[in-house]
Amino acid sequence: MTKTIISSDKAPKALGPYSVAVRIEGLVYTSGQIGLDPATGEFVPGGIEAETRQVLTNLQHVLKAAGSGLEQVVKTTVFLKDMADFARMNAAYSEFFTQDPPARSAVAVAGLPKGASVEIEAVALPG
Fold it and tell me: Which CATH number fits domain 3-124: 3.30.1330.40, 3.40.1440.60, 3.40.1740.10, 3.40.50.620?
């Protein structure tokens, strides 16, 4: 069993002592991504929809570095700062998973890193 640590220059670096993603035994596990622009380290402007798009763009880059992609995602977990944002997050999310979307859980939490509105983690098959 080989564990491979994944990183990408096109996605934000880990904010703490964890890996952005790990590939092991035919699966890729990503850590949660938030809506940071990797070039600036700042949140993208535009609210929950823009943050969700940036989160999923960041996940695309992480998964690509792992030899996978969004089409290979089997499960996501969405963490929302405010469940009132669910419909708007869902609209942006659906732009990235247009066919055969993965299983998903969505929960509201008391807070997210750096005050993010949304955080999403994924489990994917390698490409």
Answer: 3.30.1330.40
